[in-house]
Specification:
The protein has one helix and seven strands, in the order E-E-E-E-E-H-E-E. With 96 residues, it is an alpha+beta fold.
């Protein structure tokens, strides 16, 4: 008899990020630019360096919108074999 179970390889994670502002035609700034997620080695220090570069070279305002997202767990299923019990029940009330 199969005993199919779900095994979690990587648990669900909450990831923070930053969305950059872009200058609009009327001169205003809106948070609809590139989004950077603090995952896969990208750090707050990397974001700070990127923003400093944009301030120096592009006239960026140096602000960003904080974001959060949930990365679902990575799972797989396994058949971990039969499930047996040594306990039996009879309608007559006897157990073993």
């Amino acid at each position: 008899m199969p005993n199919i179970v779900t095994v979690v390889d990587v648990p669900e994670q909450k990831v923070e990020g930053a969305r950059l502002y872009t200058r609009q035609a009327d001169g205003s700034w809106i948070a609809n630019g590139e989004t950077y997620w603090f995952e896969n080695g990208f750090t707050v220090n990397d974001l700070e360096a990127l923003i400093k570069d944009k301030i120096r070279n592009e006239g960026y305002i140096g602000s960003y919108q904080n974001l959060k997202r949930t990365v679902p767990a990575v799972t797989h299923t396994e058949d971990q074999g039969s499930y047996h019990t040594d306990y039996y029940y009879c309608e007559c009330g006897a157990t073993k």
